[in-house]
């Protein structure tokens, strides 16, 4: 056993000044002693240089303190990092089904940590399209997204962020000449934020406003010229996504919030016409639209179909022809992908993914995988005329593999895989368990252990539980390395996600959000009760809204945790949801409630917000990360929580803020940086529970 993490052996932590800042809201009064930490520049991006001097000095002191208290972990961090790098898989995606005569693929450059995008022709000739390592040169931060070729194969485009603030530029490669142009210089929205028109003559793209909200759709000629405004959205609670339908007959503009939606169509033969609404938006109804077999498809939750049904529409009149797939409670339809040969849909049954092929004659073929926990996903940008559908499959003991499914027969084969060097799946065991929540609900758990592990082990428990986003049982090479160091690794599939359908999501929203945290605590206690974990040797881990989950659970049951790791955590919940100018607040009010207008919402948010609920108690060691340029969960949220835990906490465990001055909500898209962060987390977790690094038997495969 090593000496557990303790702040008494290093410099004293920074003491943040407490100032009286009284907030009166809906007849309620609260005091925010650390409100002064919030800083939004009048223009441009936050940097250490443009912070107010007192705030800059405080954050620099936090960075110095974090470096000092974490310095004794350097050898442990190095041990984990070396193993992560040594075993990291050589990721080389197999070429996709041919589109316009080319098969596209991506992978990491040899010995590198950035992606390279290429394509291969029918004659076997390969062209390199984009080397992200080259694009990242000279930038402290680099992340790219939405890579896609034009339908005619002449261009390749991507959105890239070189600042860290999620405001992208869109770059266009003319493949024949090799010239790269910046088609949109700034303020573009990534993540479904642009698409080529069916003719390849235009690029439709989404613009972010001053609040970083996607509010306008533009159309830019690919060969150059002024961008034309296509649609402007006035409702700040609506986000936008643009795409081509699978068969290329339309461009779809999807306007959606948590409880409303609208789709507008731009026909392929009228690319410069105004978009046409499929249905007017109506609160309580969401829908998406695609195209298959001479009809439009509408995936919707209308008429009480909370787990969604699939309708067929006439492409001219937009009237409903028939119901292709009826609503089945508890079996949510997650996504569809039309092909000429068959319609592919991804759905969830008994908490696990399955794939269903609907053939043109109405027959259905269902594809499942015989594992206790796994996840599958439909690959993006697949040719409509392909005879095979590509999916990715992974599980906690099965690294990601590309699987091609024959659309006529349903038979599948593995087209490629990514196996970490020296990784033996047979050395591990996956269990799908259930914990009993205080109100009687059963909460799914996925647990990864060494097959030779018996009896209680130190445990890292992670979860998310928000926005209807499921925390899937995917493969994690860092998790496998942690398990090799003597831990069990578990995922708590708490309410607020969609692991058990829309009802599970709704069970962790608004006044029921407390369920997410009590579910998480119940999972930890269940693993102790069945002998998988020992009291006082459990480390909680969560990212973003998962940080709200674990820090809320920390307040409710501080004695349960040996340590808490909160990445860019959403923990200043009441103040943030009371900020109408925050980029995400209008969109997320249906999930959390509106404390500016609804007294009940104020009260239930105030009752769980981690920052407001720090108590006079012995807190475990707390490690929070933050990105200075983060607009989604700004740095001041974890900074305020850390300061309050230090002020009110009665124990000796340190509260640490690891601030990255160059990043935003996500780190730079660099695998080595991701491994470095995981190594720090695992070294921290080991020190919290007293596990030696390297462990006995280190280096086992």
Topology:
Elements: E1 22-25, E2 28-31, H1 53-70, H2 74-87, E3 102-108, E4 115-121, E5 126-131, H3 132-136, E6 143-149, E7 155-161, E8 168-174, E9 179-188, E10 194-196, E11 202-208, E12 214-221, E13 228-232, E14 239-244, E15 250-257, E16 260-267, E17 276-277, E18 287-292, E19 295-300, E20 309-313, E21 320-325, E22 333-338, E23 342-349, E24 352-359, E25 364-367, E26 375-378, E27 388-395, E28 398-406, E29 412-417, E30 428-436, E31 442-450, E32 457-463, H4 477-484, E33 488-492, H5 502-506, H6 514-529, E34 533-543, H7 545-556, E35 563-567, H8 573-577, H9 585-592, H10 599-608, E36 622-627, H11 636-648, E37 655-660, H12 671-689
Parallel strand pairs: 32-33, 32-34, 34-35, 35-36, 36-37
Antiparallel strand pairs: 1-2, 3-4, 4-5, 6-7, 7-8, 8-9, 10-11, 11-12, 12-13, 14-15, 15-16, 16-17, 18-19, 19-20, 20-21, 22-23, 23-24, 24-25, 26-27, 27-28, 28-29, 30-31, 31-33
Shape: globular
C-alpha Rg, in Å?
25 Å
Structural class: alpha+beta
> How much of the sequence is in beta strands?
25-35%
Terminal CA distance: 23 Å
User: How is the main sheet built?
Assistant: 8 strands, mixed
Residue share in helix? 10-25%
- Total strands: the figure is 37
How many H/I helical runs? 12
The average pLDDT score comes to: 94
Low-confidence stretches: none
Record the strand order, biggest sheet.
Answer: 30-31-33-32-34-35-36-37
Would you write up a description of this structure?
With 701 residues, the chain is an alpha+beta fold. It contains 12 helices and 37 strands. The strands form 9 sheets. An 8-stranded mixed sheet has the order 30-31-33-32-34-35-36-37, with helices on both faces. A 4-stranded antiparallel sheet has the order 6-7-8-9, with no helix packed on it. Helix 6 packs across helix 7 (545-556). The longest helix has 19 residues, at 671-689.
């Amino acid at each position: 056993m090593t000496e557990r993490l303790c702040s008494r052996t290093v410099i004293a932590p920074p003491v943040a000044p407490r100032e009286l800042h009284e907030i009166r809201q809906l007849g309620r009064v609260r005091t925010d002693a650390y409100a002064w930490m919030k800083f939004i520049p009048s223009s441009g991006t936050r940097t250490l240089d443009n912070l107010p001097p007192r705030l800059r000095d405080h954050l620099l002191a936090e960075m110095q303190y974090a470096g000092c208290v974490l310095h004794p972990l350097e050898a442990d961090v190095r041990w984990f990092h070396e193993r992560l790098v040594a075993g990291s898989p050589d990721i080389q995606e197999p070429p996709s089904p041919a589109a316009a005569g080319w098969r596209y693929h991506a992978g990491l450059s040899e010995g590198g940590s950035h992606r390279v995008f290429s394509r291969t022709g029918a004659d076997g000739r390969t062209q390199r399209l984009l080397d992200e390592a080259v694009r990242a040169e000279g930038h402290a931060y680099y992340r790219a997204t939405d890579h896609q070729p034009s339908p005619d194969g002449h261009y390749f485009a991507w959105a890239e962020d070189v600042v860290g603030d999620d405001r992208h530029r869109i770059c266009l490669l003319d493949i024949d000449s090799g010239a790269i142009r910046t088609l949109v210089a700034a303020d573009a929205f990534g993540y479904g934020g642009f698409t080529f028109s069916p003719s390849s003559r235009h690029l439709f793209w989404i613009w972010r406003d001053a609040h970083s909200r996607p509010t306008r759709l533009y159309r830019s000629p690919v060969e150059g010229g002024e961008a034309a405004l296509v649609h402007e959205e006035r409702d700040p609670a609506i986000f936008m996504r643009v795409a081509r339908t699978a068969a290329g007959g339309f461009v779809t503009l999807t306007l959606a919030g948590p409880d409303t939606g609208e789709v507008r169509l731009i026909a392929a033969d009228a690319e410069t016409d105004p978009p046409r609404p499929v249905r007017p938006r109506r609160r309580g109804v969401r829908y998406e639209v695609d195209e298959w077999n001479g009809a439009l498809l509408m995936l919707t939750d209308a008429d009480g179909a909370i787990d969604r049904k699939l309708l067929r529409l006439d492409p001219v009149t937009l009237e409903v022809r028939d119901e292709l797939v009826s609503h089945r409670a508890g079996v949510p339809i997650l996504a569809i992908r039309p092909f000429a040969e068959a319609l592919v849909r991804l759905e969830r049954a008994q908490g696990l993914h399955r794939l269903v092929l609907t053939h043109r004659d109405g027959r259905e073929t269902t594809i499942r995988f015989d594992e206790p926990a796994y996840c599958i996903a439909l690959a993006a940008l697949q040719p409509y005329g392909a005879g095979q559908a590509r999916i990715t499959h992974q599980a906690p003991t099965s690294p990601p593999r590309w699987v091609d499914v024959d659309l006529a027969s349903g038979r599948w084969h593995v087209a490629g895989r990514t196996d970490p060097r020296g990784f033996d799946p047979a050395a591990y065991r996956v269990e799908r368990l259930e914990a009993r929540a205080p109100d009687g609900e059963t909460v799914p758990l996925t647990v990864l252990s060494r097959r030779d592990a018996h009896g209680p082990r130190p445990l890292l428990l992670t979860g998310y539980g928000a926005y209807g986003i499921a925390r899937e049982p995917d493969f994690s090479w860092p998790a496998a390395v942690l398990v090799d160091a003597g831990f069990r690794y578990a995922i708590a599939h708490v309410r607020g996600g969609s692991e058990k359908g829309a009802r599970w999501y709704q069970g962790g929203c608004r006044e029921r959000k407390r369920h997410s945290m009590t579910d998480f605590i119940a999972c930890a206690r269940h693993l102790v009760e069945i002998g998988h974990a020992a009291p006082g040797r459990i480390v909680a881990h969560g990212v973003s809204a998962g940080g709200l989950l674990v820090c809320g659970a920390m307040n409710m049951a501080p004695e349960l945790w040996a340590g808490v790791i909160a990445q860019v955590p959403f923990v200043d919940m009441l103040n943030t949801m009371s900020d109408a100018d925050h980029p995400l607040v209008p969109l997320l009010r249906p999930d959390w409630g509106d404390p500016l207008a609804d007294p009940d919402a104020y009260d239930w948010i105030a009752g769980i917000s981690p920052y407001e609920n720090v108590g006079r108690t012995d807190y475990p060691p707390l490690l929070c990360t933050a990105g200075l340029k983060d607009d989604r969960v700004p740095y001041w949220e974890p900074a305020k929580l850390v300061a309050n835990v230090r002020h009110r906490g009665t124990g000796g465990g340190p509260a640490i803020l690891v601030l990255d001055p160059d990043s935003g909500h996500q780190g730079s898209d660099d695998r080595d940086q991701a491994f470095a962060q995981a190594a720090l987390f695992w070294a921290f977790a080991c020190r919290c529970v007293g596990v030696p690094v390297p462990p006995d038997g280190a280096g086992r495969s």
